[in-house]
Amino acid sequence: MALAEGACLNHISRESSDIRRLANFYKEVFGFEEIESPNFGFDVIWLNLPGSFAMHLIERLPETKLPESPYSAASPIADPSHLPRGHHVCFSVSNFDSFLQSLKDKGIETFQRALPNGKVRQVFFFDPDGNGLEVASREAP
To answer: What are the VOC domain coordinates in residue numbering (predicted)?
Structure first.
């Protein structure tokens, strides 16, 4: 028996100095829906990816001096080709080619590769705060 039997992803949190900009990005690129957020005494936006998980966007403390996000473990610059070894969140889509075209249409810089087995294709890119993202192809059921 697993120690965390029944465990599943509940939400991912991201802090940002502009949570509205970040929310709009995730809504436009992935189809997240904005849901009711509690009042914590600071600004938050809660998003839900239907049938999947939630993302909580949290207002960054104004006095924070650190950059929004490390781009990757291998590079201090925003280079998506370094993301396979850096921090990132991965989504899967069954419409990989049309999703990839939508990124190009939005002018988002990407890095693509296929796994050695040739069955899974990957695209890496950044959200507006420099958080690493991957989208992997998923065959339709």
So the answer is: 8-138
Tell whether 5 is covered by a domain: no
- pLDDT tens by residue, 70-96: 555 555 667 787 777 677 888 988 889
* Regions in the chain scoring below 70 on pLDDT: 1-7, 64-77, 85, 139-141
Same domain (yes/no): 53, 85? no
pTM for the model: 0.77
The two tokens of residue 79 are 């280079």
Tally of domains in the chain? 2
Query: Which region, left, alpha or beta, applies to residue 76 given φ > 0 means left and ψ of -120 to 50 means alpha?
Result: alpha
Q: In sequence order, what DSSP letters do the residues of 37-85 get, joined into one string?
A: ----SS-EEEEEETTTEEEEEEEPPTT--S-S----SS-SS--GGGGGG
Among 33, 67, 74, 68, which Cα is nearest to 50's?
33
